Amino acid sequence: MTEIALIIDLHKDSGRQGPGSEAETLRALEFMELPTDRKLLIADIGCGTGGQTITLAQNLNAYITAVDLFPEFLDRLNQTSGKLGLTDKIQTLQESMDDLSLEPHHLDIIWSEGAIYNIGFETGIKKWKDYLKIGGYLAVSEITWITPNRPKELEEYWMQQYPEIDTASNKIRILEKNGYTLVGYFQLRQESWIENYYRPLEERFESFLKQNNHSEPAMKVVEEHRAEIDLYLKYRPYYSYGFYVAKRN
Ligand code: SAH
Questions:
Q1: Domain holding 136: CATH number?
Q2: In the structure, what pLDDT confidence band is assigned to residue 1 with cuts at 50, 70 and 90?
Q3: Whose CA is nearest to atom 9 of ligand 1?
Q4: Mutate to test the pocket of ligand 1, among 3, 9, 17 (most ligand atoms within 8 A of CB)
Q5: Does the residue 51 lie in any domain?
């Protein structure tokens, strides 16, 4: 199995592939003034197995296009939406977030939790803007420094992983520079990392290694996830996901 296939295998049976929670998805929604007289058109980009997609479908009168690069995640989302009777609200689309076939100026909301880093925050918000109606909303969570300074070890790790990591004020400036107005911001709670994402992931390590006969690549995937978790536990006062809710000008 390739490294990416192993990573998919490790994550595909989880309800989430990144930090977040139902409460925080709903909190981001609260910043929006949405029409109630018609169905909303929404794209959930980098939806994974669709934790947040389901929350949106359960709480809005909407058609949601749930986009991800990997069919394994979308299959699981289709299963869940089938079980919950939400198939008329959620349609999955296997595409890359930097090359979407969505109609321009069409969407009321673009949602994306823990995924925009795959193409970079600034590239993502620029590319996606065209799909939004004027006055449509962007709700995006992005890794964010929560203090002005931080330890060298942490800084070095993130500069290697994702050099676009920055403070909220700088991220907001990027939104403003690119034709959005911020309507709300908050940070994900620590429980949303630990209870909802890291703990279920850790519980999966043993069976994942067993299934893959403790192969060297499988051990490497676990080690990398372990290192990410350990770093978070050590340095969590310094970074989180920021949830940015903005309106297209
Ligand atoms: N929103 C989900 C998943 C976040 S993990 C949650 O919060 O639980 C990031 C997701 O982005 C993964 O599901 C991954 O498959 C997807 N992804 C990575 N690169 C992508 C790309 N180029 N286009 C679309 N999706 C991508």
A1: 3.40.50.150
A2: confident
A3: 115
A4: 17
A5: yes
3-state secondary structure of 69: coil
Give the integer Cα–Cα distance in Å for 123 and 91: 25
Ligand 1 within 6 A of CB of 68: yes
User: Is residue 117 a part of any domain in this protein?
Assistant: yes
Q: Alpha-carbon distance 140 to 111, whole Å?
A: 6
| Counted domains in the chain | 1
Place of tokens 């749930």: 66
User: Amino acid letter at 243?
Assistant: F
Q: What's the domain range around 166?
A: 17-189+239-248
Q: How far is CA 15 from CA 20, 134, 198, in A?
A: 11, 33, 12
Candidate from 8, 44, 55, 69 with most ligand 1 atoms within 8 A of CB, to mutate: 69
Distance 155 CA to ligand 1 centre (A): 24
Instruction: Answer whether residue 36 is part of any domain.
Output: yes
- The strand pairing partners of 93, in sequence order, are 67
pLDDT digits (tens, 9 = 90+) for 114-133: 999 999 999 999 999 999 99
In a domain, 99, yes or no: yes
Does the predicted model carry a pTM greater than 0.85?
yes
CA of 37 to the centre of ligand 1 (A): 31
With a CB cutoff of 8 Å and minimum separation 6, the contacts of 216 are none
Half-sphere exposure of 210 (CA within 13 A, CB side): 5
